[in-house]
Structure formats: structure tokens, C-alpha cells
Write a structure and sequence with these properties.
The complex is a heterodimer of chains A (168) and B (442). Chain A has 168 residues and is of the alpha/beta class. Chain A has three helices and seven strands. In chain B, helix 8 packs antiparallel against helix 13. Chain B is globular, with a radius of gyration of 24 Å. Classes of the chains: A alpha/beta (168), B alpha+beta (442).
Chain lengths: 168, 442
């Protein structure tokens, strides 16, 4: 039984140190190479549910402040793990470069990430290596582009104002 | 069969058959159809190919997206053998309108208006989780009255959502009287919402910084009349459905999910609780003032459709208990934080002060800036863990707003739930998951 009050990184015996953000939540920055290993160690340490997985596109904040030793990249995959036993959450942030947007899938550790990884792929174009059904989920299968990227335009519906020149 | 019998020695040696629940969740997920993806292209003309069709051929059919019992535009591809479902796969996205992208284009003041449209059966929960996330980034405290009003309103919303679930579930299982009763009871709560917030749905009532308006005069009487009526009605439904042989036959032992699989599939809410895991964020990680009220977490034992029905039925009773305590303990005071940065001035001040008018205009047009940071907040919505991941970059709009929608995640547990059941049971199972497609597709 884990000691209450210990951080998730301590519980799982990780070399990474977690930081407590301004919001009082535990955040763990991991590299792509250590991603699966860290997630596996956390699962064995009691973080048995993957509550959430989503992507973030930091195109406009490529120089954002991050803890020492973490190189900021364009994409981030944010994973929220939850321990039902000690009522604790931990958030993993993985930096994913624009040139090679691939991360290993968590499906083999947490089968519940199936939909979430497909969503992150669909909306951000980050690929999950080894995912059993690596297809679009929300957008149509033949859609071009990944809509939640910051360089994807919002689009607008033209509005016809009174006395504006008409289309003809 | 016990595990001893399963491991009995035969003429071919020891048979080490594993019991079902010893299978690794991943292997089970793969076997039960999570990666299953039937072809979507045009069908081949049977005359073009030279194949023999035996009697053991399987068939792939689509249930939905126009099927009335799929609660919206959910489409489920099913591989059938006769009437037995072998594998299935929910296909979603028909209602996708890019609400997360929209959320990045709207200010924090407008944001609640956007998120409230996601889960249209419990809009106040969506507003609450967004507001909690924004407040965590802003580091503002909200006054106790606002906290208790939020609790009162969201619990009433939970009752209305569960009652509507009872109604649609009854309709799916051919109990049309339940449908009429359910809609009748929901209307009672919606009229109270209309009186308080101005709208029956999509309220934009809970906002960063508090709530939009104080409770109306005489609200205690309205709320008390609701929670004095609902438990009696719930007893009636209990009597009408719980012991009814047809309802029992259609729900008991159908769509069973084990606690291990539910956790592996990230299922939350009534699905997880019905399988026997006492996990309720209101109790496990209290937000608002849930630590100060007395209620029970309802847990099932089997994890079948009937248990999910029973969990929801009894959660209505528990919510009534919470609402009653909210009425008794409602503190006096302000209903929104008096932080000049996020709170518009009182309406009366606008008529007499130019600065107040400018301030009001500024907040509703430009909004307020939120310091950079990222936060994940989660609350217990009627369908499970509703989370909001918010990234702020110091501007007046969220840089990234992600909603962890419980229905979206819970839909993953459909393939294991449907597997091996009859296609007629699929209707009961889909209904018991309670997907709200607005939230699934966002």
C-alpha cells in the first residue's frame, strides 16, 4: 500500500521528478523514449485508469517556459492517469516534434485510450505507433488536414449585409 | 465451473484453461472488437464473385445512425451470426461541430455558453467544469453561496438527467408509460431552471466567478415541492419496473462488464459503479462542498443492465437528499466573487456611473485575461467523469480547451458489453450506457 502524500513519481520509483504546477496538480514531463516505460511503471504503482488523453498544439508558443531539461516542441500529448486506490491524479506531458509526430500507443497498457488516441490523431495528426485501429474518429475518413492544429483556419460563413454588393 | 474443474486433467494432459476474468484486458479488448473495423466501401455485387455461402457465414449490419434507439446519431457496426453479436464497433462523428476549436475562439466569458451545448441533458455540469477550470487558473475564491447554488443546481440537473434516462430507457424497452412519466417529471425541474436561469436548457448560468444570478424569490418552496414529489414518483417507477417480469427478463444478466474491464476501458459513472467499484468523484475527490453533505455512493454487484438501472434509480434518491441539505444549509451572501477583474458591476451601478458602464462593456466584449498555466479539473456528471483540460497563455481566450466527455469514453465499453448477446439486447445495452451524442462528438 502506497504512502498517502507521496508524489506519483516517487511511488513509481521514477528518475523523472514531477513538478507541482501553479494549479496544485502533479505534472510529469517525460521524453518520447521513456513514455511507455513511465506509463507502465505508473500503472504498476496503482495508477490503473487512464482518465484522459489529448493533444495540444503549441505553434504560437514554441518558446514557452518548461522545466529544465525539457525541450519544447510543437505538439504535446497530455495524459491524465488516475489512481482509484489513493485518489490521486498525475499528468504526463510528452513533447512531440512537428517533423516526426509519432508516439507509441498506450493501448497495450490502457485499452481505454483507444478512442482518445484516435481523437488526438484525428484532430492533431499525431500518430500513435502500434494502435490497433489508427483511423479518424470524428472527422470523415477522407478529410484533409487536422482541424485543431493552430495553422488550420477556423473558416467562416459569409454573411450578406444589407446594401452590400451582392454576388451578382 | 470452478477453476479446479477447469484445470482438470484429461487424456491429453493437464488442461490449463483460464477463467474468463483472468484474460488480460488488452487481449480481451482486441478479441472483443476494439480494433474491429469493417469495410465501409460500396458492397460487392454478389454475382461478381464466385464464393459459396455456407450456413455459418457472418453478416455485418449497421445499427443507426438513424435508428431510434441509438439516442441520436450513433452508428454501430455489428458482425452477426444469426442473431448473436460477435463483434461490434461504434462509429461516431456525425454530430461533430468542432466545439473545442470554437472554444479557442471564444473568450472565457463566452466559453460557458459554448460548453453548455455539449452534453445537452446536463448542461449545468458542463458549465461547472469549465468554470472550475478557469477559476483554478485565475486563483479566485468563489463565495460560499455561489458554491451551494452550484451544488443545488447541478444536483437538480442530475435528477432531471437520470429521470430522462429512465424515460428513454423505458421507451427502448417498450415501457411507454415510463417515458411519459419521465418527461413529466423532468419538466418540473426544467421549469425551475427556467425560472432561475431564464432558459430550460443551455443556461450559461454557472460562469467563471460564480453564477449569473441569485436564486429567485420563493425558490425554497419550488425546490421543496420538487424534492417532495420526486421520491414518491421514483417509488412508483421502482414498483412499476423493478419487479416487472418483462423488464427483468430484458435487463438481468444482459451486457455484463467486470470491474477490471470497466477500469481498463476507462469507463466511469454508473457503468463503473454498477460493476461494483465505489468510485464517485463527489466522494473520492470532493469538489464544491460535497464534503459537507451526507449521501451514499450507490454500487451494483453484477454489472449488467439491471444494475445500471438500479444505480441510476437510487442516485435520484441520493440527489434528492443532497438537494434537501442544500436548501437547509444555503448560506446568505454574494452569489459571485467580488473580483473586479472577472465580475461585471451590478446592474444598478451602470445607470449612475460611467466607469461601471465601461467596466461592464469591457468584460462582456473583451473578457478578462487569465494567467498562463494549464489545469485539469474533473467533476462527476450523470454519465461519469467530466473533465476539462484548459491551457491558458495569458490572453482572454483559452489556448486549448479540451473536454473529457464521459459518453465518448464510455462508448468504448460497448463492444465488450454487446459481445455474445442478442441483437435485441443491444437496444437495452446501448440505452444503459446512456450516450449523449452532443457530448460524444462535440
Amino acid at each position: 500500500m502506497a504512502a498517502v502524500g507521496a508524489s506519483a513519481a516517487e511511488l513509481a520509483g521514477l528518475s523523472e521528478t514531477s513538478s507541482i504546477g501553479a494549479s496544485g496538480q502533479e505534472v510529469l514531463h517525460v521524453t518520447r523514449e521513456r513514455y511507455l516505460e513511465v506509463a507502465g511503471a505508473l500503472r504498476d504503482a496503482g495508477f490503473e485508469m487512464c482518465a484522459d488523453l489529448c493533444g495540444v498544439d503549441y505553434l504560437r508558443h514554441l518558446d514557452r517556459p518548461l522545466p529544465e531539461g525539457v525541450t519544447p516542441e510543437r505538439f504535446e500529448i497530455v495524459v491524465n492517469l488516475l489512481s482509484l486506490e489513493i485518489h490521486q491524479r498525475v499528468r504526463l506531458r510528452v513533447q512531440v516534434p512537428d517533423s516526426d509526430p509519432v508516439v507509441p500507443t498506450l493501448f497495450n497498457l490502457y485499452p481505454g485510450t483507444e478512442n482518445m488516441e484516435r481523437e488526438a490523431f484525428d484532430l492533431y495528426g499525431v500518430c500513435f505507433e502500434g494502435h490497433p485501429d489508427h483511423t479518424r474518429i470524428l472527422m470523415p475518413d477522407d478529410w484533409e488536414g487536422h482541424p485543431l492544429r493552430k495553422d488550420y483556419s477556423v473558416g467562416r460563413v459569409p454573411v450578406q449585409f444589407k446594401q452590400a454588393p451582392g454576388p451578382r | 465451473m470452478t477453476s479446479e474443474e477447469l484445470k482438470a486433467e484429461t487424456s491429453e494432459g493437464l488442461q490449463e484453461l483460464q477463467e474468463r476474468d483472468e484474460t488480460d484486458p488488452v487481449a480481451l479488448a482486441i478479441e472483443e472488437g476494439s480494433p474491429f473495423r469493417p469495410p465501409e466501401g460500396p458492397m460487392l455485387d454478389l454475382g461478381d464473385i464466385d464464393v459459396e455461402f455456407g450456413e455459418d457465414e457472418t453478416m455485418i449490419i449497421n445499427m443507426g445512425p438513424q435508428h431510434p434507439s441509438t439516442h441520436g446519431v450513433l452508428r454501430i457496426m455489428m458482425e452477426l451470426e444469426g442473431e448473436t453479436v460477435l463483434r461490434s464497433k461504434p462509429v461516431i462523428g456525425y454530430l461533430h461541430t468542432g466545439m473545442e476549436k470554437t472554444g479557442e475562439e471564444l473568450t472565457y466569458v463566452q466559453g460557458a455558453t459554448n460548453v453548455t451545448r455539449m452534453d445537452y441533458l446536463s448542461p449545468l455540469h458542463n458549465e461547472l467544469v469549465f468554470s472550475l477550470a478557469a477559476e483554478a487558473l485565475l486563483h479566485i475564491e468563489i463565495p460560499p453561496r455561489a458554491t451551494w447554488i452550484r451544488m443545488l443546481m447541478t444536483e437538480l440537473n442530475r435528477i432531471s438527467s437520470h429521470v430522462l434516462w429512465m424515460a428513454t430507457n423505458g421507451m427502448d424497452l417498450a415501457s411507454t408509460s415510463m417515458m411519459i412519466y419521465g418527461f413529466r417529471d423532468r419538466e418540473m425541474i426544467l421549469s425551475f431552471f427556467e425560472k432561475t436561469t431564464g432558459l430550460r436548457m443551455n443556461h450559461d448560468y454557472i460562469r467563471p466567478g460564480g453564477v449569473a444570478a441569485d436564486l429567485p424569490d420563493g425558490w425554497e418552496d419550488d425546490v421543496m415541492s420538487i424534492i417532495e414529489t420526486i421520491p414518491g414518483r421514483v417509488d412508483e417507477y421502482d414498483e412499476m419496473l423493478t419487479g416487472q417480469p418483462i423488464f427483468k427478463h430484458r435487463t438481468e444478466g444482459v451486457g455484463i462488464i467486470s470491474p477490471e474491464l470497466a477500469i481498463a476501458m476507462s469507463a466511469t459513472g454508473p457503468i463503473l459503479r454498477a460493476s461494483g467499484v465505489a468510485w464517485d468523484l463527489r466522494r473520492a475527490m470532493p469538489y464544491l462542498a460535497y464534503g459537507d453533505v451526507d449521501f451514499d455512493v450507490i454500487v451494483g454487484t453484477v454489472g449488467d443492465v439491471f444494475d445500471r438501472y438500479a444505480v441510476r434509480l437510487n442516485e435520484i434518491r441520493e440527489s434528492c437528499k443532497i438537494v434537501r441539505q442544500c436548501v437547509e444549509k444555503m448560506p446568505l451572501g454574494d452569489y459571485r466573487a467580488q473580483d473586479k477583474k472577472v465580475t461585471p458591476p451590478p446592474r444598478a451601478r451602470i445607470d449612475e456611473s460611467m466607469e461601471a458602464l465601461i467596466h461592464h462593456f469591457k468584460i462582456f466584449t473583451r473578457g478578462f485575461e487569465v494567467p498562463p498555466g494549464e489545469v485539469y479539473t474533473a467533476i462527476e456528471s450523470p454519465r461519469g467523469e467530466l473533465g476539462c483540460y484548459l491551457v491558458a497563455d495569458g490572453s482572454n481566450k483559452p489556448y486549448r480547451m479540451h473536454i473529457r466527455a464521459p459518453s465518448f469514453v464510455n462508448l468504448q465499453s460497448l463492444p465488450p458489453l454487446l459481445r455474445g448477446g442478442l441483437i435485441a439486447d443491444a437496444v437495452a445495452v446501448i440505452s444503459s450506457v446512456d450516450p449523449v451524442m452532443g457530448e460524444v462528438d462535440r
